[in-house]
Design goal:
218 residues; mainly beta; 9-stranded antiparallel β-sheet; 0% helix; 54% strand; binds fe (ii) ion
Length: 218
Amino acid sequence: MDINTDFKQRIVLNTDQLAWQSSPVQGVERQMLDRDGGELARATSVVRYAPNTQFTPHTHDGGEEILVLDGCFSDERGNYPAGTYLRNPPGSQHAPYSTDGCTLFVKLRQFAQTDSQALRLNTKASDWYPGLVPGLSVMPLHEHDGISTALVRWAPNTAFNPHVHPGGEEIYVLDGVFHDEFGVYPKGSWIRSPRYSKHAPFTKEEGALIYVKVGHLA
Ligand SMILES: [Fe+2]
Ligand SMILES: [Fe+2]
């Protein structure tokens, strides 16, 4: 399977309007954002677990990164409510499930082989730091080998400096409405901008909360 695998292309998707597709596991559906490969793919997806769904025990060959968007995700190590950020490094294993149902933003098989850090971070109780301009707050989630992942909170009517993404940029809009000179991106939007792309993002009266990863499309 080959979905949005040309990383030189700018891709914008609104997951509120994207079809849900069944998976090999009963009760698990997904929206494919990018995907290179079959069931063992390098993939970025939004994944939905129906209540009382048990996923197959599995090993993360290329690592697994998850942000819990809604509901509560669980595995044998704990329960992860909305706002939890998880990293399962290459070689780790688990048997996930959801009792009440959940929705997840998932990136599979995108770890550097040198990245062995497991992480369980509750972003609802982690610290925000001032961003580069007034109105921006940043919560770093992870950094490895030039690839940075963070949540960024935009107060209403915040304008950021025009900037270039030498290693590309990926954004998932978690709340509010994000803007740049190319478009308007409500909650649920996914924007993948290629290396050396540039833009001047801003918010209007809604403000925004976004997940941002940079440096991984180099
Ligand atoms: Fe997993
Ligand atoms: Fe940017």
